[in-house]
Every structure is written in structure tokens, then in C-alpha cells.
Amino acid sequence: MTLSFLFTGALAALLISHSAIAADTSPLPRFSGTLRAQQSRAYPVRLAEGDYVQGTLSGPGMRLVLLDAGGKRAQVLAKGQRDEQEFMFVAGARGPYTLDVRAPRSGTYQLQLLQVVPRAAQRAAQPEIASVRLQALQQALAAGGDSGAFWREVEQAGAPLVEMSGENQSQPLVTFLWRGARQNVRILGGPSSDHDEMQRLGRSDVWFRSYRVPPGTRLSYRLAPDVPELDAPAMVRRRAILATAQRDPLNRRSFPEQPLDNFDGASVLELPGATPQAWVAPRPGVTPGSVEKLRLSSSALGNTRDIYLYRPHGYQAGAAGNALAVLFDAETYLSEVPSATILDNLVAAAALPPTAAILIANPSNATRSAELPPNPAFARFLAEELMPWARQRGIWATADQTVIAGASYGGLAAAYAGLRHPELFGKVYSQSGSFWWSPDGQGQESEAEWLTRRFIDAPAKPVEFLLEAGLFESGRNGAAGILDSNRHLRDVLRAKGYRVTHHEFASGHDYYHWRGSLAAGLVALIGKRDGK
Fold first, then answer.
1. Which residue in 105, 336, 351, 427 has its CB near the most CB atoms, within 10 A?
2. Among the listed ranges 201-215, 334-348, 435-449, which one has the minimum average pLDDT value?
3. At CA 492, angle to CA 491 and CA 496, rounded to 5?
4. Neighbour order of strands in the sheet with 218-225
5. Does the pLDDT at position 51 exceed 80?
6. What pTM does this model have?
7. In 10 A of CB 447, how many CB atoms?
């Protein structure tokens, strides 16, 4: 036996009219009744296609079925598995619909609709605003104001916003801003490694993203408005951010200090607690050393590259106590990272012994990606070709005074060189080394953190390590990132008996940080000790 109950016209209107829902603050109606075993009761509802409906059905064992205009089952909303059951659905095109309460056994029930939201009223909630200044702007906009005064204030003070507000007073709130965009704005760099999207403040021209960061934060970043959406592989889509990435027009500080145009270089943020970069600028009274650019052909690699040989002022080849730094990515470590100036200052201040440097350039991006990750041929080039060639030119030091160093893939290459040739490279300095890396291919050779596993398997070598990583270098999509993989390698090396120094900084994958930490790392590994 089936009993029918129809909503009144007023109640039906309440369900299908967005204006009625918005105007009526009273709860949506609740229906209750008693059914004998195998009875049902139908509640026809008139819904527009796309309406979102949420409700509850209470009663031991009660079931609820959504029926379409022909009385056919469209969806089982409640299976009777609990005494109180929540349901939700989106109305399709097969209405008008009926909610059919069914009783497998005798009992009472209550049916209540909690929400009916028409498609036109469905929109994402506004993001929570942590910035006090943006909260004030939001209130001004709601009162009918505009953003003009806000932008004038930001243009005068500069961006990003830095506020000490909210519950966590120990970590500043940093808010990145962009004025006006058609579809999106993303952040390249900054406190995230995932090209975070900025949010729009209502329908205004204000786009923003806020982060809690440590008081010692130092980072560079770019902003990318209206990044193209491409029908392309994931990596191509991700790299499309480079098409519009540019310096923050509201931030007067840049890296380098004199960029070529709006798209050159990056904007910078340095909070007061950031470690000073005391060695990166030329100092009065310090005589610069020399940098010699040469070409070196490699039979091991089948290519030719630029090699830069740095000699500090007054350098004497073969003198006792000389030290040596071998640096990858010469094209960057002679520009964004002013290695020659840093070494000039450190040697002149007697923080380092007379220290020469070999800086190794990459013939191309492709060769860098092929050679710097663990590559036996590249390790052979270093040991059998580069180092003897440099020694013939008076640049060498004992292994315990030779540090091989680099960032990202360069840090990975430095660690691999130390593993393969400890007789040459007794000190390894990795700046955010890419120890997450695994080779292409199948089976065991494609395992993550490949080099760390090689250190597990190999006997310990006479090599000292300095590893550093940024707190903002977390992984993506559940994979280990630079921060986690550096911590793992640190633990493995210490368990194997290596001497390891490990530092973490409030930074990202960022030459603006690495240029400052390079000096401290070199001093820690090959600096003068005990007055020597």
C-alpha cells in the first residue's frame, strides 16, 4: 500500500525559488509520520535542473529513493543503514521528482530538507582573509567603497604586505598582491614550490595570497597574471607560468638590482630576522682576484664547455695550505651568486686560506639535466680530465682542503662526486640538493632518492658533508621534496659514520638565498681553524 502526500504550493515555491530562500529566514519544513512495514510515502518536489538539495532522514531502517517524472528510480538517497541518514543530490533533467520514504519495518520517520540551492546561487565561498588590512578593505567594499585608497597606500609603502596580526604573533603574515587580472594570478617562488594561485577579493581588482612565515625569511619571487590554460602535458602546462611571470610592480626591490625589463630578475622579500649577507658585495680595500675563461673538450662526455679558473689576489700555486672550491653552474655562480667577490672578501679577511676555484659551465640546459644527476661519465670527466687539467695550471689542493659544491642538481652532482672520488673531493657542500632524484627507466633503477640508497649500500668514505635546504622546499603530490630528501640523506650519512652538518633556512629554491649561504658553507668546511 502506498500513501501520497503533496507539498502545498507555498512549500513547493519555497523549495524552487532562490528569492524565496533568500528572503525567508525560517528553517525549511520538516515532515514526520508513521509507516507500517513495506509502506511508503511520496513527497513530490519541483526542482530546477542543477538545484543542489541537502537533507536528513531519521527513523530506524527507513529508506529514501528519488523518483523521476516517470516514477523510475533516479537515485537511492538513504539505504536504512543508520537511524539518522544525511543525503544530498543535484537535480537533473528528468523532473519533476518525488522523494519516496520507504519502511522495511514499522516505525516513525522525520524527513527534513536542509538546503535547496539553485544553480545560479551556487558559488565558491570567499577565502578566509587573515590580513587585517584586507579585512578592512573588504568591509569598505561591502559598504560601497572602492579599492583606490588601498592601492595608493600599497604603492607608497611597497609590497608584499607584512603584518604581525592574528593568533600567531611569532610568525609574520606576508600577503602578496596583484592589481587587476582577467582569469588568474600565480606565484612563482615565494613560500611555496607549487605555483600557488592568488584569490580575488570579491569582484574587486585585488588579487591576494597570504602566508605565515618565519621572521628570518629571505626569498625571491615573481607574479604571473593570466597564465595561459593549455591542452598539453602536465609539465608543459606547469611551465606555462614562465610566459607571463614578472617582477612584482609594487615591490621596488629586485634581484639583480638593475634588471633589464619587467620580466627580468625577481622581486625580493627579506624580513628583519634574515641572516645578513655580509660577503656578497665588493669591499673597499680588497684587491680582486683573477677569473680566467678557458675551453675544455671532454672525450668522456663528447662535448666542449667553458671552464672558469679563479685565483685570489697573491695566489701562489702549490703553496702549503691552499684550498680549492669546485663549483657547478658557472654561468650562475659568477653572476647571481658572485662567487669571485665572495672569495675575494673571505680570503682578504683571513676567513679562508688562499682559495682558488674551478667553475664548470653547462653547454646547454639539456646537458645540465643529463650530466649533473648521477652520471658515471661526468664523474670520470671530473676525475680524469678536469682536475688534472686544472692542476697543470696551478690550481689544486689536497682532498681535505677541496670542497665540491653546487645547488639543486649541482648539489646532487657534488654528493655523487664525493661518493665516487673521495681521493679528490674530501668536502661536499650541497645547497638544496635534488636528492629526490631517480633515473629514468624501469625497475630498481627508477627508485626515488637513488643516490641516498647508494650511500646506504656503499662503505663510508673519508668525506665531510654540509647539507642545506629551504623550509619552503616541500614536495608535491605526495612525493618527497628537497627538504624531506635532504633530511633523509642527512640521517643516512650520520648512521654510516660520516661527519655531516645540516642547516635549514626560511627560504625556497632560490639563488638569492644561496649567494648568502655560500660564504658560511665554505668557511665551515675549509675555513681557517686553530689560528692556521
1. 427
2. 435-449
3. 115
4. 185-189, 218-225, 266-270, 254-255
5. yes
6. 0.79
7. 11
